[in-house]
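Show me any protein, fold above all:
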Amino acid sequence: MSRLLPPSPAIPGSGCLQLLPAATTARRWTVFHPHPDTSASWRTINRLKRNRGVATRFDKLAVRYEATLHIAAINEWL
């Protein structure tokens, strides 16, 4: 353990000693995606928002809003 600590303090007068980092080994970097399919869902929603009728529609009945979504999806598909 004595070889990990330098002979002099890290900050003069503080009494704290600086720890040297351990020998590093070659590590393989991995890419971490917390939400891998978020991009696909956002692109789908933005495609539907191209139709103003879908983006600004506030119906009392959910059936009418769902029908508007179906028409917009069919229009995008064609």
The radius of gyration is 29 Å. The chain is about 40% helix and 0% strand. The CA atoms of residues 42 and 48 lie 10 Å apart. The first helix runs from residue 38 to 49.
